[in-house]
Amino acid sequence: MSKPKIAIVVGSTRAARFADVPTEWIAKIARSHADIDVEVVDLRDFPLPFFDEVASSAWAPSQNEVAQRWQKKVAEFDGFIFTAAEYNHGPTAVLKNAIDYAANEWNKKPAGFVGYGSVGGSRAVEQLRLYAVELQMAPVKSAVHIAWGDFLAVRQGEKKLEEIEHLNQAATALVNDVAWWAKVLKAARKADAIADEARAA
Fold first, then answer.
1. How many other C-beta atoms are found inside a 10 Å radius of the C-beta of residue 166?
2. 25 alpha-carbon distance from chain centroid
3. d(C-alpha 178, C-alpha 195), whole Å
4. CA nearest to 35, candidates 189, 187, 179
5. What PANTHER family does the annotation carry (predicted)?
6. Rounded to the nearest 5°, which phi and psi values hold at 85?
């Protein structure tokens, strides 16, 4: 079986976003893991409108071309790590919107989070975990929380993320968890598909 493919989803599209910094950092750590393949997926490349379909794509095909392209991209992956900025105690609207524009493509795959902002983005990550459960994902326990002091030090150029050891440790644990669950769940999904084919034969 091929190695699980993990997406690092950039959860902000603002021109002045900080998201590129943790994305590059976590992607480098993830790419050093021998058991997974990694791709950065930038929501800027999928300019989705605010959700305006007749129903979730779980119940009716999306009509919007960008939504269709987004769903095909999500379906390519066996697991996800989301960068999660915290705005007003929650995740970015653009990330929630992107999550809502796919459905079955998320199912039975692990999700991990790199939060930043006030209290390390923990309230945004907490909400994202709830969304993940509703979409039948497996949110992993390990997470990265770039707390305010570290965030400001990096933002102001005083430090780099790779120089902050407790964040490196958290990132390694996160990637290890996502990789393990991606491998296990990919095998389980394959077994389900084989069983479904056998029943249909």
1. 11
2. 15
3. 25
4. 179
5. CHROMATE REDUCTASE, NAD(P)H-DEPENDENT FMN REDUCTASE LOT6
6. -70, 150
Task: Report long-range pairs for 61-69 (Cβ below 8 Å, ≥24 apart).
Answer: 62/101, 67/101
Phi, psi for 11 (deg, rounded to 5): -90, 15
Cβ burial of 104 (10 Å; 0-12, 13-18, 19+) is middle
Per-residue pLDDT tens digits for 14-53:
999 999 999 999 999 999 999 999 999 999 999 999 999 9
Q: How far apart are CA 141 and CA 111, in angstroms?
A: 10
In the chain, domain spans: 5-200
Torsion angle of alpha carbons 60, 40, 120, 79, nearest 10°?
60
CATH architecture of 5-200: 3-Layer(aba) Sandwich (3.40)
Q: Count CB atoms within 10 A of the CB of residue 201.
A: 5
Percent helix, strand and coil across the chain, each to the nearest 5: 50, 15, 35
pLDDT tens digits along 154-191: 999 999 999 999 999 999 999 999 999 999 999 999 99
